[in-house]
Every structure is written in C-alpha cells, then in structure tokens.
Amino acid sequence: MPKEQKLNQEVRVRMAPSPTGPFHIGSARTALFNYLFAKKFQGKFIIRIEDTDRTRSKVEWEESIQEALNWLRLDYDEGLEKGGHFGSYRQSERSEIYQKYTEKLLFSREAYYCFCTPAELEEHRNSQLAQGLAPIYSGKCRKLTKEQSAQKKEAGDQCVIRLKVTPQTVVVNDLLKGQIEYDVALFGDIVIAKSVDEPLYNLACVIDDFEMKITHVIRGEEHLTNTPKQFLIAKALGLDIPQYLHLPLILNQQRAKLSKRDPSVAAKVSDYIEQGYLPEAVVNFIAFLGWNPGDTREIFSLEELIQDFSVEKLQKSGAIFNVPKLDWFNGYYIRQMSLDKLTNLCVPYLVKAGLISPLWGKSEVIPLVYDSNFTVLGFENNKTKEKVSFNQLAKIISLYQERLKKLAEIGELVELFFEEVEYPKEILKWKKMEMAELPAVLDFLLKTLQEVNEKDWNKEKLESVLMPEAERLGDRGKLLWPLRVAVSGKMASAGPFEIAEVLGKEKTLQRIKKAQEVL
Ligand code: GLU
Fold it and tell me: What is the pTM of this model?
C-alpha cells in the first residue's frame, strides 16, 4: 500500500479525459498507470468524462476513448459505458451536484460573482504589466454586497464566479515528486464557474473526485499547476483531497515536451492501430514512459506489469518517447506470435493495400482492430482474380515474420506475390558483374529451373540445383542477385529460394523470362 493510503480504504483511481479530440497516446499512458495502480492495490479504476466544455466535446471522441481502452485491453470498473454507483460519470449530466456545491461557496462567501467585463480586465492587466507587476485580478467585485450582485444579475449583466484566494503557501504532497510549495497569492481570485451549474474544470474535478470517493489522482505533470487551485477549492468546501501523483512529462527525442502536433510522434491511439502496432507492444512501451522494473528486463505483459508495478519505481524526470524502441517492441511481439494469428492480423492491411479482397464481397469492411471472432474464409487476388487461400497467405507472411516491424508495412513487402513486378534493368546486375554477363546467367537459371519437377519445387531443392553453379562462379551474388531481382522485382526482399518456392514453378519461370525481356 502507498504510505499515505488510509487504512481500510478501498483504492479508487480515475482517468478523466475530456472528449474534445481523438484519444491521445499520452492519455493512454495515464490510463495504463491508473489501471496498474488499481490492479496492484485491488482497487477500482474509473473513467469519468469531463465534458464541461460543451461546444468542443463530442460523442465521437468519447467513442474513441472506449475504442482505445478496448484495444489496449485496459478494462475499467466504473464510468463511461459501464456506469456505477457514483454516476453519472459524464460531467454534463451532473449540473445539480455542481449547483449544490457552488451555492455553498457563494453562501459562505468563499466565492462571489464577478461582473468585470473583458475590457476592464484587460485594462487592469495592462496597467499592472506596465508597472512591472504580475497581472492578478484586482478583487474589485469581492466588495459587492449580495444585493448589489443580485441587482446586476437581474439587469442581465454578464458574470462569472470567482473563488476568494487568501495569500498563503499551499503545500501539495505528491506521491512521486514529494512536497511542492505554491505561493497562491500569484493566482489572485480564480474563476471557478460560469454560473452555479456551469463549473469550470478545477471546480468540477474537485467535486467529482470527492463525490466519487477518489483516493488517488494519477495524471500527467502538465496538471501540476491545477493542483494548488484544486487544493484551495477543496479547502473552501471543507472537502478531503485525494493523494496526488503526477507522472513525468513525455518528451520527444529532442527532449522537448511532446505536443499533440509533434510531427515525430503519432498523437492518436488510432494512428497506432492504423500503422499496425500491436496493443501488447504499445502497452509495454508506454509502461516504460515513467516506470522501469529497476533491472534489465524489458518485455512485460499487462499481467507482468501489474505484478511488478510499484510507485517506488516510477521516475521523476521526463520520459523520452523513443519511436525506434516502440518499433523494436512491436517487432518482438510480431515474432512471438503464431503464424495464424499474424496472418489474421495482416489481412485487413493487405485488403487496405488493395492486394486482396475477401471472397464474400468487396464491400465487406474488415475492421483494423483485431477481433478473435474474425473468420477468414478465403480471398481473391485483386489483379489476377485468382483465389488465395488462408494457407497461401500464411506462407507468404511467414517469409516476413522475422523482419516485420509494423503490420501496415506488410502490403509493400508482399505485393510482389500479388502483382506483376516492374523494375529498371540496371538493378538486375550484381555490383561485381558486367551487364554483358546477365543474359547467360538468366539463361542458365531458366534452363536449370525448367528441369525441376513441379512436385519437388521447394526451397531446398532449388538451392541444391543452383548453389553449385553459384559457387563455381566464384561469387554467389552473380547468380543469386539476378535471381532475387527477377523473382521479387526488388533489391531487398526475402531470400530468392523462399520467394521462388512460394511463387511456384510457373510464376518463377515467367519472372525469369520477364527479366530476359527487361534486359
Ligand atoms: N479533463 C482533464 C484532461 O483531460 C483531466 C485532468 C485530471 O486528470 O484531473 O486533461
């Protein structure tokens, strides 16, 4: 148990996303750490939708949160689509609760209506800046009596609600960063609501964390500036506060704070799905954005993370988002996978690349999210209209399982099996060879391979008939390179014998003839 945890109190943590855009990879990390913390302490993980910004909040973004959590397999206990005892878990449906608390603050005069216009505020701000002072609200409307405020409201004057902030030092005890002191005099009287039932984020967050019995708030360091404000609001309302734990900032490889628009890192979880990252790899990778096991182990399943997770092993300094490392994790999990599962997972990417269509109709949309109930019945090669069986696909994909980093790369790697190859004749030539040597080499390849019996057509047989000649030439590349380019159309591919085996005798011979034409 974390040391500040009160005895006998069930751990309750929450992630509180605002559905104002697609679910971000940084939010996925917050979700993971909340999930791990809850699991570690047999607590509850809650998803609360912070949609107080009504104009920017959209149902589709709420759906993207659920989709991302499903994909990452981060199951939660209450909120979002599950509901629970402390609902509604959507802030837009909790106005009555907020009203009760906001009225309490107004009644106790801890908060007051402020009628200052934007122009007035701007003028005050500029005059303070001109005097070299920090711009702080003047507190002008603090002096209004209840009657004066009521009159102004009646007259239709625009207003907001501000919290009275008494200059003091607020000490926040963060579970990771330790004690942090804030001089809150610098805040001035903060705006906490647009009206009694329209709280702003800080107020709604404090009320909800209290009402939902949240024991620990685990969120990104960018929220550290909100914490003293939430502390002041809770104090004014006489509410207990949760324990805070602010996860380190996520940095890009230049060590700058990662923004949603950073071109070097995909922001949306859906981008990771689209590029063909596996959820196991993403979970493993984001766990290391702020945590490590304290030894050299790197591979962790979700279950192993729950086992090994501890607050003591969280890091305070910024966590670098190292894309090559993520690719490494992904390659690792791809290699570990059964060929059947990998083939299943590659299918939607092959369809998207336009190479194959499912046999049961072209309009069928295959979801990019892996679904274990998905049954592959068979396919059609889009170009040749030939039937392609699941086993044929598996055989092709097996050639690339070792090197594949992201599923979306599969299309480009395997297109040579589905379409005619096109290449400039120059690439047929091995670097230590003359163009003039090529016709004889291609001739030899064609003649020798024609002799091989269809039923013996496999990698071992092809090797046994071609390797002696390759050796005899004194440089294997002189035979194997033109063969590789002829069968694959590429300078980098799987081995030429493997490709020839999968292509079959007829297609392999056709491709060698094509190389002769290209020359
Ligand atoms: N709605 C806030 C956000 O999406 C949540 C902050 C918090 O966890 O308190 O960043």
Answer: 0.91
